[in-house]
Design a protein that fits this description.
The complex is a heterodimer of chains A (388) and B (82).
Chain A: H1 3-30, H2 35-43, H3 62-75, H4 77-96, H5 101-109, E1 116-119, E2 136-139, E3 142-152, E4 160-166, E5 176-182, E6 186-190, E7 205-214, E8 218-219, H6 225-261, H7 263-268, H8 274-303, H9 310-344, H10 352-360, H11 368-380
Parallel strand pairs in A: 1-4
Antiparallel strand pairs in A: 2-3, 3-7, 4-5, 5-8, 6-7
Helix pairs in contact in A: 1-2, 1-3, 3-4, 3-6, 4-5, 4-6, 6-8, 6-9, 8-9, 9-10, 9-11
Chain B: H1 5-9, H2 34-48, H3 65-77
Classes of the chains: A alpha+beta (388), B mainly alpha (82).
Chain lengths: 388, 82
């Protein structure tokens, strides 16, 4: 990214962060979508960051996506997750959609007005990405969709959706396609509410989407979603989420350090206390570990076009597992350090209470337990232990 | 493809049902995931008395029944070099 574009990005980010700071506590309280932050991400064009420059977009790299996600998350994890997952959809279009769909979608996405959500969850299969029970059919050259999804982040506000469904001719639940749908082509029913512990402003409500889309709006090969997951969708989910979690914990540590260095902080805490220094050091080393893994995963993405080998998959899965565990542990330790009043109370200026609740979701978001099992099987494939 | 090979594969293919398994059968579409792939690997090594080098343990090897059989056959004949 050039210097001029970088300056433009910083200005856009500043405007978005102002909206985030104004509205994040209210969105968290009400478990409602941060519409003001989304409006700012649209009006500044930030949502177009990952669209290639030749299509009129921001031309941002994966490193840019990670940097912006970390910055957003320092202020609010929900907004960072929303942004990172939108970029995951955009890059999926960039890398896997075929013409003429690709050209049309990237033209719409480039100015940043168009917000994409994904519909990959299904009742009965949890977060298992690679199977589906959602049958489709073809009628008048259109793909007919009737899709029930228990968790759709931003579904009430998205302009378009990437949806996983069975291919019309599927003989097994593993023949899953990814399909693009304009909001105008769908009837959307909200099937329930959203009252979670944390990441409340993602407002990830259950929905039913029915309608039909032109049959040519399948992204990648029919039944080929597994390939998209291996090369793009899976790695970007783990990278984007990890950036959001790292940014959330980083913002929390920064607020605690600024307080400790302030006049009131120095009156309240003994900053030469060995216990305090040790706790700060432990939190910092957790974040250093996650950042090192994140940077290594970015290098791996840039250097290996094929991420399906065991060492690359192990690295990216390990990033997700460690980011989830270490960032939550950092939030827990910061709360212990800050104490009941500054750490535990909702109206504390350190905002550790929201951070703690938000980061508790990290190990559950594509569950760490399942990912450990996958990594165990992958590790058995690599007896010599190669690192990506 | 050895005529017994489908019977070796079938316990690891949760969606295979009564579908015929031939060289073009997509193992992934029949339900082979990374966890089951390792269990299948052990079954193959026991059944055919071969040792599969790590270099062959890729998604491509496990893509179709034919791909996987090709590797086994070459290991049995000693023609494959890791």
């Amino acid at each position: 990214m050039t210097g001029t574009l970088r300056t433009g990005l910083d200005l856009a980010l500043g405007e978005v962060l102002a909206a985030v700071d104004d509205h994040a506590p209210g969105a968290d309280d009400g478990a409602v979508f941060p519409v003001q932050a989304l409006d700012a991400m649209r009006s500044t064009g930030l949502l177009g960051l990952c669209v290639p420059a030749e299509h009129g977009g921001g031309g941002g790299t994966l490193a840019d996506l990670v940097d912006v996600t970390v910055e957003l998350a320092r202020h609010d994890m929900s907004v960072a997750m929303i942004f990172a997952m939108h970029c995951q959809q955009v890059l999926t279009v960039v890398r896997h959609a075929e013409e003429p769909l690709r050209d049309r979608l990237l033209g719409e996405l480039a100015p940043g007005r168009h917000y994409l959500a994904s519909v990959t969850t299904e009742r009965g299969k949890g977060g298992h990405l690679l199977s589906s029970e959602s049958e489709t059919s073809i009628a008048a050259d259109r793909l007919v969709i009737d899709r029930d999804a228990p968790i759709v982040t931003g579904g009430l506000h998205a302009d378009g959706f990437l949806i996983t469904v069975l291919t019309p001719e599927a003989i097994s639940p593993a023949q899953v396609s990814l399909v693009y749908a304009d909001r105008a082509d769908l009837q959307i029913a909200e099937l329930g509410g959203w009252q979670p512990l944390g990441m409340r402003a993602t407002q990830s409500v259950p929905m039913r989407l029915t309608g039909s889309v032109p049959a040519g709006q399948v992204i990648g090969a029919a039944g080929g979603f597994h390939d998209i997951v291996a090369r793009t969708f899976g790695p970007l989910a783990h990278l984007g989420w990890s950036a959001a979690w790292l940014g959330t914990a980083t913002g929390a540590l920064s607020r605690v350090l600024q307080y400790l260095r302030s006049d009131s902080g120095r009156k309240q805490y003994d900053v030469s206390s060995e216990l305090l220094l040790t706790r700060i050091a432990r939190v910092r080393s957790r974040l250093e570990t996650v950042n090192a893994l994140l940077q290594q995963a970015i290098r791996c993405w840039e250097e290996y076009p094929d991420l399906s080998g065991a060492p690359a998959q192990l690295l990216i899965n390990t990033l997700k597992i460690q980011a989830a565990e270490q960032c939550f542990a950092a939030a827990d330790e910061l709360m212990e350090l800050a104490g009941l009043r500054l750490g535990y109370l909702r109206d504390s200026p350190l905002q550790l209470e929201r951070v703690f609740r938000d980061l508790r979701s990290a190990s559950l978001n594509y569950g760490n337990d399942r990912l450990y099992l996958v990594n165990g099987a992958l590790a058995l494939r690599d007896r010599q232990v190669h690192f990506a | 493809m050895d005529s017994d090979f489908p019977a070796v594969l079938r316990p690891f293919l949760k969606y295979a049902g009564t579908h015929e398994i031939n060289a073009d059968t997509s193992l992934r579409e029949m339900g082979l995931d990374s966890m089951r792939a390792i269990e299948l690997l052990f079954a193959i090594e026991d059944t055919y008395a071969v040792a599969m080098p790590d270099e062959f343990l890729t998604d491509m090897t496990f893509e179709t029944a034919g791909n996987l059989w090709g590797i086994i056959a070459s290991l049995q004949s000693g023609s494959e070099r890791p």
